[in-house]
Automatic annotation (TrEMBL):
Entry keyword set: ATP-binding, Kinase, Nucleotide-binding, Thiamine biosynthesis, Transferase
UniProt entry tagged with the keyword Kinase: yes
Entry's Gene Ontology BP terms: thiamine biosynthetic process; thiamine diphosphate biosynthetic process
InterPro entries in the record: HMP/HMP-P_kinase_dom, PM/HMP-P_kinase-1, Ribokinase-like
Domain (Pyridoxamine kinase/Phosphomethylpyrimidine kinase) ranges: 14-256
Known role: Catalyzes the phosphorylation of hydroxymethylpyrimidine phosphate (HMP-P) to HMP-PP, and of HMP to HMP-P.
CDD domains given in the database record: HMPP_kinase
Reactions listed under catalytic activity: 4-amino-2-methyl-5-(phosphooxymethyl)pyrimidine + ATP = 4-amino-2-methyl-5-(diphosphooxymethyl)pyrimidine + ADP; 4-amino-5-hydroxymethyl-2-methylpyrimidine + ATP = 4-amino-2-methyl-5-(phosphooxymethyl)pyrimidine + ADP + H(+)
Gene Ontology MF term list: ATP binding; hydroxymethylpyrimidine kinase activity; phosphomethylpyrimidine kinase activity
A GO-annotated cellular component: cytosol
Name the UniProt record assigns to this protein: Phosphomethylpyrimidine kinase
Source organism, top-level taxon: Bacteria
Length: 265
């Protein structure tokens, strides 16, 4: 049997299993690729928030990356929580030397507002990480932090995309998940525009949506799809996962990564 496409996530661990590395690997399994991981940080996290976070040393991040890429090889890379300026710069450097598309989710804060990236790392995201991204996937808070553009309605999404593209990613998906009404995202490379629209699911169990979307994009890119095809398929996958999100713990539960695999009985 031939090996499936290989996808690498470079991200933090969520002990609750809903976001971070755990979400990434689950999404990759559900989409039929071989998921691999470089851990950047460990969080003590659950449905109520982040109770603690510990960064790994930069040598540990570099060593994991080299182990995976030099032997197994990757068809796509995805980044999530990178925690510090030093890690952002090291990861940007590693991606620049890798011949595979990179999906950069510039994770800033958790759904509960806990910081996952130091404020002092924002400049490195702008000048080192975004320039090596094939696709960047900021949410509206990350757009505001990185560019100063505040999105209040769908009409502002194009302006937000233009501001992010200034930093050099090939494509950007501005996620409109935090607006009201339909869940509308804008994918653009500055010339083509694709509006991705899905019904808003009235489900508070949305922990891990951003990680899941970015990992799904990376998985479809690894299978050889174009960026617009990969993002469209990833949007369908995350929409289904949100619709099937379930309660766990006393707070915000996870999306269901396996929704597309469940056989109705
Ligand atoms: N309630 C919802 N119903 C349907 N889609 C949603 C909902 N909330 C977010 N989305 C979609 O989930 C994806 C992740 O967006 P978002 O939640 O904004 O990311 P993040 O986790 O980075 O904050 C986007 O495609 C967004 O449109
Ligand atoms: C380790 C880690 N990485 C990322 C997120 C963001 O989660 P979301 O996908 O809900 O924005 C998180 N809560 N924890």
């Amino acid at each position: 049997m031939s090996a499936p496409p290989r996808v690498l996530t470079v991200a933090g661990s969520d002990s609750g299993g809903g976001a971070g590395i755990q979400a990434d690997l689950k999404a990759m399994l559900a989409l039929g690729v071989h998921g691999m991981s470089v851990l950047t940080a460990v969080t003590a996290q659950n449905s109520l928030g982040v109770q603690g976070a510990w960064e790994l040393p930069v040598e540990a991040v570099r060593a994991q990356y080299r182990s995976v890429v030099d032997d197994i090889g990757v068809q796509a890379v995805k980044t999530g929580m990178l925690s510090s300026a030093e890690l952002v710069e090291a990861v940007a450097d590693l991606i620049a030397g890798t011949d595979a598309p990179a999906v950069v989710d510039p994770v800033g804060v958790s759904k509960h507002g806990d910081p996952l990236l130091a404020a002092s790392a924002l400049d490195s995201v702008r000048t080192a990480l975004l320039p090596v991204a094939t696709v960047a996937t900021p949410n509206l808070d990350e757009v505001a932090q990185l560019t100063g553009v505040r999105v209040g309605s769908q009409a502002d999404l194009r302006r937000a995309a233009e501001a992010v593209l200034e930093f050099g990613p090939r494509w950007v998906v501005i996620k409109g998940g935090h607006l009201s009404g339909d869940a509308v995202d804008l994918l653009t490379d500055g010339s083509e525009e694709h509006w991705l629209r899905a019904p808003r699911h009235d489900n508070r169990h949305t922990h891990g949506t951003g990680c899941t979307l970015a990992s799904a994009i990376a998985s479809h890119l690894a299978k050889g799809h174009s960026v617009p095809e990969a993002v469209t398929a990833a949007k369908d996958y995350v929409t289904g996962a949100i619709a099937a999100g379930f309660a766990l713990g006393a707070g915000i539960g996870p999306v269901d990564h396996a929704w597309n695999l469940r056989v109705p009985r």
